[in-house]
Amino acid sequence: MKLAIVTETFPPEINGVAMTFGTIARELGRRGHEVTVYRPKRPDLAEAASHPEFQEVPMPGAPIPGYPLLRLGFPAWRKLRDLWKRDRPDLVHVVTEGPLGASAISTAHALGLPVTSSFHTNFHAYTGHYGFAPLHRAALGWLRRIHNRTLRTFAPTAELCDELARLGFRDLCVLSRGVDARQFSPALRSAELRASWGAANGEPVVLHVGRMAAEKNYPLLFRAYEAMRTVQPKLRFVLVGDGPLRKGLEAGHPECHFPGFIPRHELARHYASADIYIHASLTETFGNVLTEAMASGLAVAGFDYAAARQFVRDGENGLSVPCDQPDALIAAAASLARDEALRQRLRLRAPASLASQSWEHVITHFENDLARIVAGAAPSTP
User: Fold this and answer.
1) Which domains occur in the chain, in start order?
2) Hey, which of 24, 237, 285, 342 would disulfide with 256, CB 3.0 to 4.6 Å?
C-alpha cells in the first residue's frame, strides 16, 4: 500500500503518540509499504537518524502557545492537494486532530481518497487542567466531528472504544500498543546509573516518565512520593521528561533527579535501573509508560483503567486501585516502598505479562485493517 500518515507529533519528539507512530511508520515501511509522513517542520530539534523505511514531508507549523515542546500544524489544503494529485496515496491516516489533520481529511474527501484516523489524547479532558473547563463540550464536539468524517477511528483499547461510542463517535476499532521486549528489559539494569542517583547500596528507586504537564496529576504523584519517603527515607525519585511544570518541580524538590528528555535506548536503561513505577495520571488513552515499566521489571501501581486494566492483575504482577480513590494509590505506593518482598515478587512477574504484546502482532492487525479499507471492505470490529 501507499500510505500517507499525517501527524503533528513525531520523533525526535518524545511522547507516546510520537513513539507509537514512529514505530508504526518504520515497521510498515520494513514490510514493503510506501509510507510518507507529513508533520510540522522542527528546525529546533536535532536531526533524526536516517530512516530508509519511510519519507518525511515537512509542513508549516508553529509552537503551541505555552507549550513550545510541541508543534501545531497549520491547515495545508493546497499543499496536500498538489502533493496527492501528483502522487496519489492509497489511504490517508490522520494521527492528530489539529488544523493540519483536519485539512488532510478535507483534502482526502475532495480527492476521493479513503481516510482513517486514530484517537490518542483526551484533549476534552484536558480543558479542566488548563482553566478552560467551559470549553469541554466544544472540544469534545470538535474531536467527534473530526473523527466521524473518517471511515474508521482507531483507539488503543476496547474500553476506550466503548466510551467514545457513548459520546457519539462512530466506526471505532482497536489499535493497541506494543512493547519491544528486546528494548525494554530487566537485563539493562545498570549499577553505575543507580550509583549516580545515590542508590548504590540497594535503596529503592521510584521512576516517572512523561510530559511534565498539568494533566499528568503531579500533585497526587508527589503525595505518593512523600508517603513512600515516610516509610522508606532512603528512597530516590527520578523523573524523566520535560514540560511546563519542570522548573517548578525542580525548585520544589531539589532532592529528586531530573535528567530531562533522553534517547530511547537510555530511557530503557533508566527503566531497568529503577524499582518502582507510580502511574498517577487519569487522562491517558493507553499509557505506554506503564507497559514499558512492566516489561523492564518494575513494580507498578496505577489506577484501574487503560493499560493498567488490560495488563495489571492486582497483587500478582502489579497493584491497581479504583480511579475514584486517590488515597488508595498513595497507600499502594507506600506498600511498594515498605515491603521489599512484595516489590520483588511483582518485579519478577511483571515482564511476562507483556510477552504477547509485541509490536509485530499489533502492527499486523493494523496493517490488515488498513488493507481491508483500501479494498473497500470493513475492518475488524473492536
Assistant:
1) 2-178+358-374 (3.40.50.2000), 186-354 (3.40.50.2000)
2) 237
